C-alpha cells in the first residue's frame, strides 16, 4: 500500500454498506466514495495536483472526511487546522506552508470571511449539498515517502511547528495500532477528538482501515457521551485523561453506562491513577489501553496491554510494533533500569522533520532517533513510565519539582475537574501555584491541603491556589503554562 486513500478504497470494496455517522445521518462507504471522487474534481479544478498543500480548516464532519481522502486521492498534502485557531495562528501556518487551497465549511468560513487572509488566499467553503457526486477523476499514484500530511503542533510559547508525515509514516503507525487494538469491521467508535489533532487523525485512519463504523459526535458533555455510547452500542471510545476525569465526576457513570463498549483508549496526557482504578473496577471486562505518543511519531509510540493495568499502574507500557525505544542521559548514553533519562525512539512512523525548520529538526532528529523531550524510566520488565516534560521542571528552594506529580494528587479531589501547577516567579521571589477548575463553586482549601500534606513533602505543596472557569489550552489540548505564569505574576507578585 502506497497511498492512505487505499485504506478507504479497500474498505469500500469489501464493505460498501458499512458507514460513517454524522448529524444522525448514516453515510455508507459507497456513498462517501462517490462524493470523494467528485470532490477531487472540485479540488483539481483549482489547479491542485501532486505535492500541493491543501489546508483543511473545518470541524469534524462528513465534509472533512470527504475532503481529507479527496486530497490524498490526488496525491496532494493535507494540512489540518483546528477551528479553535486564531486568525494569527492561521496566518502563521499559511505563511509557513504556502497552501495552494484552503478548504473550509460554511459554518467555519464566517470566522475568516472578512479578513485579509480570505482576500489574499484561495479559500473555498464547501457543503455536502454542493458536491456533484456523479463526476470523478482518476487517482494519482504516490510513493510511500511522499508527504501525506503536515500537522502543526500548537506551541505553548512559540509559533507552531509543521510536522511532516509521509504516507509510510502514517500507514506504519496505523497498522501497528490496529494490531494491538484488534479492530475489525464489526467495531464502532465514538469520535469526539478533533480529526485535526494527531490522536483524532489516528482514529479516522484506524477505523477506516478496519472498515468499522465511525460515529462523529461534536458534543463533549459527559452525560451526552454516555447516552450515545449506550444507545448506539458503540464498542470503542478514545479520550484524554482530563476529559475522563470530568466524565467520572460530572457524568452519571455506572457499570450500566458502558453498553456494548469493548475498550477505551487514553493518550495525549497523563491519566490520574485513581481514575484508572475506578474505571477498571466499574467494569472488569472493559479493556483500558493507556498509550503514549507524539505528533512527530504519527501518533503512537507505546501502549500498556489492559491485562497489565493493575500490575503496572502508571506505566504507558512497551513500544508498539515497529518502534525501538531507549532511555538516555544528557550525553545520549543509554541508562539502566529505573534510571531517569530522556525517551528517544526510532521507527518508520517517525516524521521526516519540521517544515522550513532545519535547525529545530536537527535538535530532535539525530541519527534517525527522535528525542522526544519526555523524561521517564524503564523498569526491569521493560515497561515505560513518563515522569515529566524535559522543560516543565520547577526549580524551587534548591529542589527540582515535577508539576505533573502535584497535579495528579490535586485532581484526586472530588470537587476539582482539572488543574495546572506552575512556577510563579518575579526576579528572586518564587512561589508554587496551583490553578484549578472546580466542579462546584466552593472549595474547602483545608480539605485540599490535607490531601496534599499526606502525599507530598512541604516544599511541593502550592502556596497559591487560584480558581478559573477553564484552563488556557492549545488546540491540541496542552495547557498554556506560560500564559498562567504571566496571569499569576500580575495577580500575586
Automatic annotation (TrEMBL):
- Residue spans crossing the bilayer: 65-83
Query: Per the database record, which ranges form the AMP-dependent synthetase/ligase domain?
Result: 9-355
Organism superkingdom: Bacteria
The family database entries (InterPro entries) matched by this protein are listed as: AMP-bd_C (IPR025110), AMP-bd_C_sf (IPR045851), AMP-binding_CS (IPR020845), AMP-dep_synth/lig_dom (IPR000873), ANL_N_sf (IPR042099), ATP-dep_AMP-bd_enzyme (IPR050237)
Q: Is Electron transport a UniProt keyword of this protein? A: no
**From what organism does this protein derive?**
Bacillus cereus (strain VD014)
Q: Membrane: present as a keyword of the record?
A: yes
The record's section on SUPFAM superfamilies has: Acetyl-CoA synthetase-like
Q: Which UniProt keywords apply?
A: Membrane, Transmembrane, Transmembrane helix
GO MF terms listed in the record are: acid-thiol ligase activity
Protein name (Swiss-Prot/TrEMBL): Long-chain fatty acid--CoA ligase
Cite the Pfam families for this sequence: AMP-binding (PF00501), AMP-binding_C (PF13193)
Amino acid at each position: 500500500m502506497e497511498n492512505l486513500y487505499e485504506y478507504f478504497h479497500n474498505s469500500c470494496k469489501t464493505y460498501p454498506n458499512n458507514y460513517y455517522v454524522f448529524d444522525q445521518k448514516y453515510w455508507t462507504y459507497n456513498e462517501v466514495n462517490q462524493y470523494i471522487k467528485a470532490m477531487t474534481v472540485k479540488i483539481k479544478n483549482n489547479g491542485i495536483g501532486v505535492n500541493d498543500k491543501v489546508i483543511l480548516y473545518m470541524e469534524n464532519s462528513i465534509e472533512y472526511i470527504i475532503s481529507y481522502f479527496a486530497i490524498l486521492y490526488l496525491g496532494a498534502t493535507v494540512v489540518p487546522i483546528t477551528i479553535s485557531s486564531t486568525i494569527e495562528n492561521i496566518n502563521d501556518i499559511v505563511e509557513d506552508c504556502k497552501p495552494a487551497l484552503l478548504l473550509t465549511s460554511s459554518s467555519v468560513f464566517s470566522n475568516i470571511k472578512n479578513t485579509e487572509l480570505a482576500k489574499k488566499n484561495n479559500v473555498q467553503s464547501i457543503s455536502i449539498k454542493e458536491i456533484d457526486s456523479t463526476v470523478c477523476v482518476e487517482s494519482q499514484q504516490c510513493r510511500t515517502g511522499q508527504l501525506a500530511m503536515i500537522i502543526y503542533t500548537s506551541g505553548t510559547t512559540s509559533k507552531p511547528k509543521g510536522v511532516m508525515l509521509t504516507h509510510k509514516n502514517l500507514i506504519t503507525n496505523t497498522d501497528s495500532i490496529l494490531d494491538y487494538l484488534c479492530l475489525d469491521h464489526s467495531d464502532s467508535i465514538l469520535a469526539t477528538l478533533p480529526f485535526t489533532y494527531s490522536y483524532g487523525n489516528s482514529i479516522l485512519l484506524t477505523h477506516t482501515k478496519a472498515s468499522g463504523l465511525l460515529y462523529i459526535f461534536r458534543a463533549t458533555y459527559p452525560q451526552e457521551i454516555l447516552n450515545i455510547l449506550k444507545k448506539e452500542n458503540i464498542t470503542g471510545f478514545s479520550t484524554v485523561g482530563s476529559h475522563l476525569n470530568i466524565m467520572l465526576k460530572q457524568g452519571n457513570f455506572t457499570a450500566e453506562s458502558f453498553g456494548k463498549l469493548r475498550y477505551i483508549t487514553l493518550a495525549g496526557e497523563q491519566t490520574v491513577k485513581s481514575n484508572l482504578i475506578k474505571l477498571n473496577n466499574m467494569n472488569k471486562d472493559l479493556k483500558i489501553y493507556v498509550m503514549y505518543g507524539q505528533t512527530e511519531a504519527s501518533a503512537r509510540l507505546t501502549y500498556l496491554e489492559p491485562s497489565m493495568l493493575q500490575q503496572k499502574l502508571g506505566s504507558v507500557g512497551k513500544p508498539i510494533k515497529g518502534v525501538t525505544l531507549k532511555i538516555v542521559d544528557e550525553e545520549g548514553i543509554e541508562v539502566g533500569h529505573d534510571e531517569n533519562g530522556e525517551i528517544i525512539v526510532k521507527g518508520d512512523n517517525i516524521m521526516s522533520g519540521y517544515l522550513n525548520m532545519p535547525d529545530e529538526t536537527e535538535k530532535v532528529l539525530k541519527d534517525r532517533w527522535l528525542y522526544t523531550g519526555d523524561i521517564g524510566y524503564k523498569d526491569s520488565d521493560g515497561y515505560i513510565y513518563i515522569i515529566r516534560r524535559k522543560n516543565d521542571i520547577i526549580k524551587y528552594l534548591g529542589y527540582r519539582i515535577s508539576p505533573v506529580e502535584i497535579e495528579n494528587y490535586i485532581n484526586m479531589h472530588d470537587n476539582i475537574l482539572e488543574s495546572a501547577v506552575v512556577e510563579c516567579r518575579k526576579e528572586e521571589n518564587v512561589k508554587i501555584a496551583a490553578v484549578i477548575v472546580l466542579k462546584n463553586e466552593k472549595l474547602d482549601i483545608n480539605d485540599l491541603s490535607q490531601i496534599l500534606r499526606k502525599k507530598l513533602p512541604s516544599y511541593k505543596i502550592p502556596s497559591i491556589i487560584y480558581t478559573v472557569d477553564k484552563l488556557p489550552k492549545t488546540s491540541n489540548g496542552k495547557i498554556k503554562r506560560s500564559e498562567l505564569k504571566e496571569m499569576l505574576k500580575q495577580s500575586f507578585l
